[in-house]
Design a protein that fits this description.
The chain is an alpha/beta fold. 29% of the residues lie in helices and 27% in strands. Helix 1 (11-27) crosses helix 2.
């Protein structure tokens, strides 16, 4: 039997949240031309692309966007396993840039820690910030997003799903509850 699905953000609410987050990111920057948006696989990559387009609309110039694969920097591979993630794609040097890591959901913080380690060989950014669409709690490491769309307390048995039009044919954020 499929999991129960509860809507957390509708398509319209997701759109408004993306606009708010993009505005907050731009307000935090001295020079938006130094911004480099990097998505963390898997959903963070698609979210980063959507966010980069929104940022471009707001600031009036292209925003560099790529992806960062932290898979082999994880300390919990034996628990979560490996998956085929898009390889790291950096459209510009990290040196001196304002890097915005983008993930769909922040949970334990281990993926973000791995992403920070994965950044190191690529250069020295001026600053690294984290944007998460949903913070579901249960942190195991002292890592918090700088920009957050929604805080949704969950149990460990629940999941959060970000759906995007380009991948899922629908948009929204949903809480998935296992039947029981």
């Amino acid at each position: 039997m499929a999991a129960d699905r509860l809507e957390i953000l509708s398509a319209a609410e997701l759109d408004r949240t993306l606009h708010r987050l993009a505005s907050q990111v731009l307000e935090s920057l001295a020079d938006s031309r130094q911004l480099l948006v990097l998505g963390i696989p898997t959903r963070g990559v698609a979210l980063a692309e959507v966010l980069a387009r929104r940022l471009e609309q707001l600031c009036g110039h292209p925003v560099a966007c790529g992806s960062l694969d932290p898979t082999f920097h994880r300390d919990d591979l034996d628990r979560v396993g490996t998956r085929l993630a898009p390889p790291t794609q950096l459209p510009a040097s990290l040196d001196g840039r304002e890097v915005l890591l983008v993930d769909d959901v922040i949970f334990t913080g281990r993926t973000v820690r791995a992403a920070l380690e994965a950044l190191q060989p690529w250069g020295r950014p001026r600053r690294v910030a984290l944007l998460a669409m949903v913070d579901r709690g249960h942190r195991e490491l002292p890592i918090q997003p700088d920009f957050c769309g929604r805080v949704v307390p969950t149990s460990r048995q629940e999941l959060i799903a970000l759906c995007l039009q380009q991948i899922d044919g629908e948009e929204g954020v949903f809480l998935l509850k296992e039947p029981g």
